[in-house]
Amino acid sequence: MTKVGCEYGTHRVVEPQGVLPQPAWRIDNMMEIYDNELLIEVDTLNIDAASFTQIKKEANKDLEVMERIMLETVEKRGKHHNPVTGSGGMLMGTVTKIGPAWTGKTPVKVGDRIVTLVSLSLTPLKIHKIKKIHLEKEQVEVEAQAILFSSGIYAVLPSDMSPSLALAVLDVAGAPAQTAHLVRPGQSVLIIGGGGKSGMLCLYEAKKRAGVTGKVIGLGSSKGSCDRMRQLGYADEVLQVDATDPIKIMKAVLEVTNGQMVDVTINCVNIPGTEMGSIMATKDGGTVYFFSMATSFTGAALGAEGIGKDVTMLIGNGYCRNHAVVALETVRECPILWKIFQELYA
Predict the structure, then answer these.
(1) Which of 100-104, 230-234, 238-242 has the lowest mean pLDDT?
(2) Same domain, 66 and 130
(3) CA distance 69 to 92
(4) What domain count does the chain have?
């Protein structure tokens, strides 16, 4: 008889009791499904950018060390939940079993290839083997199994793009969808980390929403990032500035906005210490959206208070309604974006 589970996965929590799977330190990753679960044969992990960057730095880019860190994390916690960044990622695989009480939001059947749109930091995962780590794509080829709860969201892989390309786009689906909600015609917008995966999608959406009367500024720390923004062509200004230097960011944005600063700042970087640059670039009454999981929300709140800045700060919720559709359509309707993502992630 199939065991009965909670739709939010609390039946999988080992410690501490009384919390949900995401904040739990350890969850049960036995692969016998409960009645409301879905079993996935996993072939690819897409590690969250902040987590991947931290692991890569800790391992000094040594692939064997990176592999050991990831395997030990999953062994200890029952999930890929980075203890330093607190973030996870997402996965791609094939549905192999569906519980009789499964009530997922999207139709799915055994044999479907899906991408989970919930964090690996709450997903029961068992890795049998790491086959290959792709440093440039932040993806890991694995032989593994995972569990999805009824409350978990997912997308069936589209047929018009490669699985690795779709995974890269869906990994940051919340960013362009939230950008579409935030940006209004005529506004000035700053995208910090505009040459990265989420940043490029946000640049396109920001320019689309701000229109010809708006102004979109892309900021990157490296020449490569800035070159990609120029190639994309949706940034009215491209600034190469260290994202962790708030004074330099403020001065650079002051110059290109004639002292006005921006209405909306969207932070897409994958390193810590960029909160104050985002806040100081934004005018009083403006909005800062922290999509990055490297953000210290304590630092952002106390930092804004410390400089007397009145801005609305939003946590980067990776989910909003129809975000997967928006992200995939963003790439489909922009040929140059498709080309760049194809080169980088396919």
Answers:
(1) 100-104
(2) yes
(3) 21
(4) 2
Tell me, yes or no, whether 17 and 150 share the same domain.
yes
Residue 164: inside a domain:
no
Q: How far apart are the C-alpha atoms of 264 and 287, rounded to whole Å?
A: 5
Question: Structural domain of residue 51, as residue ranges?
Answer: 10-157
236 and 94 assigned to the same domain: no
Q: Which of 37-46, 74-83, 155-164 has the lowest mean pLDDT?
A: 155-164
**Same domain flag for 82 and 223:** no
Two tokens, residue 92: 């791609």
Element containing residue 239 per DSSP (H, E): strand 237-240
Residues 189 and 63 placed together within one structural domain of the fold? no
Q: What would the DSSP string read from start to end of 78-141?
A: SS---TTT---EEEEEEEEEE-TT---SS---TT-EEEE-S-GGGS-EEEEEEEEEETTTTEEE
Nearest to 327 by CA among 209, 187, 171: 171
Per-residue pLDDT tens over the stretch 301-343: 999 999 999 999 998 877 777 888 888 999 999 999 999 999 8
pLDDT confidence of residue 346: 75
Residues pairing with 26 in the sheet: 15
- Strands of the sheet containing 154-156, edge to edge, are 125-134, 139-149, 37-47, 89-98, 113-116, 154-156
Q: How many angstroms separate the CA atoms of 75 and 125, rounded? A: 9
Provide the whole-model pTM: 0.81
Alpha-carbon dihedral sign for residues 68, 71, 293, 217: positive
For 18, residues 6+ apart whose C-beta sits below 8 A from its C-beta are none
pLDDT at position 106: 80
Q: Are strands 154-156 and 113-116 parallel, antiparallel or unpaired?
A: antiparallel
pLDDT tens readout for residues 9-48:
999 999 999 999 999 999 999 999 999 999 999 999 999 8
